């Protein structure tokens, strides 16, 4: 589903990532761990082309990301951020449906799909409230629904539990694992939490000194 081969990235001649090799199979629940500043977020941004790599190749679902327009690439993936990234002046439902509208999809179909997913995560009754009325855990559930809306092949989750307490973090990761199975999507979770990796990971890597090393 995701394949990186010899991927490198530098900023102002300072190497950040060096000869990264990773493979994530369809439906896999994989984790990448590293300290702050180790390059975890940089790697995620390379995958959805917010940044461009210097060398190496990246394929998603068997296709080089260089052969995909950015909107085509982002239709194949959903992204979840630590800070939720919800618009405060739009309702929960509006925030979710916007992810489909940006890609030109039918608003009515998107609304029906959003409501199905909101029901699945226990937030159906919150569809018409503003995100500021929700707890951190609820906001992250909304962000997960938004990431799943376009039926992606993969979810990239960049520190999705970083703003949550340990109990809520575990609940959110358990939900993500369940949805991974139900929706048939691979997930790559970026985290610094050893506990979450030991509890949930099927495959995991550690990123240090610019290199990625798979945990055995």
UniProtKB/TrEMBL annotation:
Put simply, this protein is called Cell division transport system ATP-binding protein
Family, per entry: Belongs to the ABC transporter superfamily.
Q: Which UniProt keywords apply?
A: ATP-binding, Cell cycle, Cell division, Cell membrane, Membrane, Nucleotide-binding, Transport
Superkingdom, natural source? Bacteria
- Alphabetical list of InterPro entries matching this protein: AAA+_ATPase, ABC_transporter-like_ATP-bd, ABC_transporter-like_CS, MacB-like_ATP-bd, MetN_ABC_transporter-like, P-loop_NTPase
Locations listed in the record: Cell membrane
| Entry GO terms, CC | plasma membrane
Output the GO biological process annotations, alphabetical, semicolon-separated: cell division
């Amino acid at each position: 589903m995701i394949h990186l081969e010899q991927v490198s990235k530098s900023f102002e001649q300072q190497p950040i990532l060096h000869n990264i090799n990773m493979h994530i199979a369809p439906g896999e629940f994989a984790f990448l761990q590293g300290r702050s500043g180790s390059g975890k977020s940089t790697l995620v941004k390379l995958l959805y082309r917010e940044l461009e790599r210097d060398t190496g190749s990246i394929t998603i679902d068997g296709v080089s990301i260089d052969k995909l327009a950015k909107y085509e690439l982002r239709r194949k993936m959903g992204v979840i951020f630590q800070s939720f990234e919800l618009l405060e002046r739009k309702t929960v439902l509006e925030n979710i449906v916007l992810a489909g509208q940006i890609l030109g999809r039918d608003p009515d179909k998107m609304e029906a799909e959003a409501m199905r997913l909101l029901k699945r995560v226990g937030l159906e009754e919150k569809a018409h409230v503003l995100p500021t009325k929700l707890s951190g855990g609820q906001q992250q559930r909304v962000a997960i629904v938004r990431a799943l809306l376009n039926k992606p092949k993969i979810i990239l989750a960049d520190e999705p539990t970083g703003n949550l307490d340990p109990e809520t973090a575990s609940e959110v990761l358990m939900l993500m694992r369940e949805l991974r199975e139900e929706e048939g999507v691979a997930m790559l979770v970026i985290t610094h939490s050893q506990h979450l990796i030991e509890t949930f990971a099927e495959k995991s890597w550690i990123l240090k000194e610019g290199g990625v090393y798979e945990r055995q």
